[in-house]
Amino acid sequence: MYSIRNFLNIRKCGTFHSVRLLSSTEVSTALRPFYFLVHPDLFGKYPKEQAENEKSLKTLKNYVDTMANEKKKPNPKDVQFYVKPRTLQQKERNILLSLKIRLVDTRLRETVLTILKAAELPTGYVDAIPEKKVESTDKAKEIF
């Protein structure tokens, strides 16, 4: 059996690393510009694209919820979104761009950054979230 002294020695051996933890509110705020580009309500004239965006948003939500709420590593997923036209030329020609994203990150922050970068959206909000030091407790888990 391990004593408190042994436990404290293990804790001293633990490593510290910096992570940026995101709350569900921060995730929603960070992804808001992305939602404005792909929300299914924007694609009423394009039922096929609207259905694809709806399906992909559900997949994305389940992926993020698995990491945030269940604290589990989700299985990698591929999602495809149609993006509303952003430039005048795209608007005049009714061009819908397709955006494919492979969701493979196991950290919420990295997933949000992947989505924003794929859509060529700014990441400043996520980058500004302060770093927090977190102790790795892997060694303690192995023993107890």
Number of strands: 4
Q: Mind telling me the C-alpha Rg? A: 20 Å
Q: What is the averaged pLDDT score?
A: 80
Sheet bearing the most strands, described?
2 strands, antiparallel
Low-confidence stretches: 1-20, 139-144
Helical segment count: 7
Task: Measure the end-to-end span.
Answer: 10 Å
- Morphology call: globular
Strand content: 15-25%
Along the chain, the helix and strand elements come as HEHHEHEHHEH
The assigned structural class equals alpha+beta
Order of strands across the biggest sheet? 1-4
- Helix content, binned percent: 40-55%
Write the layout of secondary structure elements.
Layout: H1 4-13, E1 16-19, H2 24-38, H3 47-68, E2 77-83, H4 88-93, E3 97-103, H5 108-118, H6 124-127, E4 132-135, H7 138-143
Antiparallel strand pairs: 1-4, 2-3
Helix pairs in contact: 2-5
